Amino acid sequence: MVDQENGAREKGKKRTEFTTIAQGGDQKGLPRKRFYRARAHSNPLSDSHFPVPNNPSECDWREHFPAFFKDATSKAENCNCVNEELQTEDRSSENEAIIPSSQADLKVRFADVGCGFGGLLVKLSIHFPDKLMVGMELRDKVSEYVKERIHALRVKHPGQYENISCLRTNAMKYLPNYFEKGQLEKMFFLFPDPHFKEKNHRRRIISQTLLAEYAYILAVGGIIYTITDVEELGEWMKSNLDAHPLFEPVPEEELAKDPCVELLSVATEEGQKVARNSGETFRAIYRRIGSSA
Amino acid sequence: MEDDEASVGVGVGELMAPALISAHPDGSCVVVAIGARLRVFDLVKNQPVVVSDETVPARHGEAIRAIAFNDKGNFFSSAGDDKLVKLWNSESWSCIKTVRIPKKVTSVTFSKDSKWVLFADKFGAVYTIPTVVKEEKDEPIQLLGHCCSIITDLEVSSQGKYIVTSDRDFKIRVSVFPADPLKGAPEIWSYCLGHTSFVTCTAFVGPRNPGGQQLLVSGGGDSTVRLWDYVKGKMLHVFDTAQLEALRDEETPDDAARAVIGLSVSPDGSVVAVLLERFSGVLLLVYDDLDKTLKHHQCIVLSEHVFPTSLAFDVTSRLWIVAGAAESFESGDQLVTPEEAAAAEDRAQMIAKAAVAHVSLVVRRSPTSAGQDEENCGRFAAYELCERGSMPGAETLLSTLEGSRANSGEVAVAAEAAEQAMKKLMSKRQYTLQERDNRKRFRNDKKFEKCGTGAEEIMMLWAWVLFARGNISERVLYGQTFHFRIACCDGLPSTIMLPHECQPQPTPFSHSQSHYPPAGEEFDCPPPQSAFRTKNKEPVNEPASQRRSKPKKHRARKEENLSRLTRELEEPYPDESRVRSEAFDDDPNKTGPNKSDNDDSGEGVRTRSWRNSKIFVLFEAKCDEAIQRSMAVPRGVVMRTKEMWDLIARKCQANGVMYVGAQCQGKWNMLVYEYLKILDHNARSGREP
């Protein structure tokens, strides 16, 4: 009985928390996942209705990484709005030590395709504070969650998490609309949908035709990280990467040094779930190489 | 008049395949593909060519969608909706190879060394087969793939180094032509991104000197022709045909952009001929090699009001234009036997044979008359429409390529339909947020409709629910004494005739419609009488169980459990009043009387259990609702699910069953589920329903 009451109180508390977050009252609290639950899948083959930039030059990264682009924005907007200016100034004074924004690389270098709830992005942000990275997620609610989460993290830890952002997009269709040739250094595919049926294999995120696109946006020497807990899919990804002439496997000794490799299995919700159940994971990590021709 | 003839002559269906035209690289012959047929005319001998095909299958079974010559002119390829790619020897005009592939083909071309035929399909894949004839059967080799998009055009660059593919998703992709096509073409060189709608066609412009680099032109659904440096993926110039004054004065709606549907470049690479949607003519642009731009050159209007569907320059800078279309049809997967397939092929061939086209020729203006236009056209030669009488081959050519009864009206109608079909296929539909929302909300309703909420089905469903719950015996069910009747054809309120033994005595079910408040109004009904309620419950249960001829053991146990369960459930719930008050929020006056009224009986309004009597009421309310909806509400006007169930709940409440909409809905879904489960079980165990 007491437990129940406590539970009810807890619930009420959570709800009020949520409403305050939703209303923008208490920005410090992280968004709660349960208010952003969505269907497990979204059809990647259907026509998209969200706006997609026509080409990479139309892509506006300033709103995604305001701290990095603050020079550009302040010049462009010419200090029209006093409040906004104050805010950016505040933040910039705090950030000065951490991000030397004038020298920073202003191109997105890492992409987490199908970022889900953004576990990997948040972890990577600490490891690579000077690289811009973006998560891509097709389910709108989930991408909303990640955006909220990043926003909350930025407010909570000023100066940190300024280099991560999330896009709602269909990575199977629109990667070249966001990234130029050879722009990316790392691409992550963590626990993608397995799509067991043979009919649905073309929905798998790793396939010969899509690897051609990944090879196009990855710089030579860039690395593609894949991991799954489904053996069948693991073999599929490995065989596809093996078959593609523009990728070669990264040797084990290099993997041991790479901080990203460790994160693959522990950073995401899905990975933690597998670890809890002491399940097996299958990873395939390949490097983009130049064409022999 | 013209429309009438068209409907008799050629069918104008949803699926129209446009007529295509292609000219031999050395100008010796012209090919028109319409429907499933090729019409070939030899310009040297001035006679039609009979094509011979001894491969299997020996002819196209559906519309041809793509044709191409190779650069040398010794091969020709045709492919289309029948998923066949045919390779022809263009000297003897015999088919040397037929390959079946899994999807419909949209575009076909040859590699520059003529060793490979490349073709693109509707699922975004590009395949290739060698042109060499071998003993073993050819398996198409996949070169590359666009992710789930229709490839609209496929070209190989003049040096043979790149494959250019354009698709419905606004993209043009430039892939490196592989050294060994057997291993695919995995390297993407660049993307040309800039079109704001589907891309329909691509071509190369600029002088074709060996060291030089040609440029790419592309046309799309956004009515622009764009010029690209395709190696760098850089857009150099945009020519918007919507800005042209010459096209504006025609009576067309201003808002609709005319899609570019065809491009052809003259052999010297300087003139780009452009076909536009709903434009009875051809637009000539010139490519300026110095400042890398496209400029308007000429606008040639055809002699008759037909919309061209395809065009091709030949080696002497003559521009061949064809207008027309043939009906295509989905034979699909229904063709099981070879006879059926043959019949479908026959039909396709017949349609193609009857189909008519309109062929025109645009030639360079002769030097004698060119003088006066010198100023207008600058250093580029002017073009003019060739008179039908003075075309090479004259009458024989026209009758071969155009079909027997050429009639411009028919052609115009067919060609327009083809344009529309193309546009419908290519353009992405825009839905408003509201429509999206609605779709999400009603998606599940449709599922229920599929499993049947029509009146008949509801009847049967109810019979089965009763049976499953042990309220009527098998004997009754199988003896066909059990029947429900419903008077719904004349729009009267429905009446359910229950089987005799199930008929509750003071029945709430034979009431008239007047009990029901009209939708949306405040509901106003006498508070339920508890005496009446307790009474009507018993007759449903008791007679049925008594009459059961041979109650099976487990059935009896189930019955017992059920009654125990109902007894338990009848205990008033502590939080029930909260639910009630929520349900009656809009009508606080009602709550008071109800409460006081039912103090004695307790369970009258407050019960949570679904007794059979209550299910009856719910069931009937739902029936009424379904019938009313099917008759009164015009199609397309949809009520929100919640509203519907609230309405049903009100009907139930009017009959003394106090539930809110959500509860009714939940129960209903459970019933449907139960019913389907029984059906499933019966299907497996082989018992007749």
Keywords:
heterodimer, A: 293 residues, alpha/beta, B: alpha+beta, Methylamine Dehydrogenase, Chain H, five-stranded mixed sheet, 18 helices, 25% strand, disordered N terminus
Could you please describe the fold and organization of this structure?
- The complex is a heterodimer of chains A (293) and B (689).
- Chain A has 293 residues and is of the alpha/beta class.
- In chain A, strands 3-2-1-4-5-7-6 form a seven-stranded mixed sheet, sandwiched between helices.
- Helices cover 42% and strands 15% of the residues of chain A.
- In chain A, helix 7 links the parallel strand 4 (184-190) and strand 5.
- In chain A, helix 4 packs antiparallel against helix 10 (259-266).
- Chain B folds into two domains: 2-426, YVTN repeat-like/Quinoprotein amine dehydrogenase (Methylamine Dehydrogenase, Chain H, 7 Propeller); 450-518 and 529-547 and 579-685, no CATH class.
- Chain B has 18 helices and 30 strands.
- In chain B, the strands form seven sheets. In chain B, strands 1, 27, 28, 29 and 30 form a five-stranded antiparallel sheet that branches.
- The longest helix of chain B has 25 residues, at 661-685.
- The model of chain B is unreliable at 1-11, 370-377, 447-456, 472-559 and 564-608 (pLDDT under 50).
- The chains are: A alpha/beta (293), B alpha+beta (689).
- Chains A and B meet through helix 6 and helix 7 of A and strand 14, strand 17 and strand 18 of B.
- Chain B: Pathway: tRNA modification; N(7)-methylguanine-tRNA biosynthesis.
- Chain B: InterPro entries: Trm82 (IPR028884), WD40/YVTN_repeat-like_dom_sf (IPR015943), WD40_repeat_dom_sf (IPR036322), WD40_rpt (IPR001680).
- Chain B: Residues 557-589 have a biased composition (Basic and acidic residues).
- Chain B: Forms a heterodimer with the catalytic subunit.
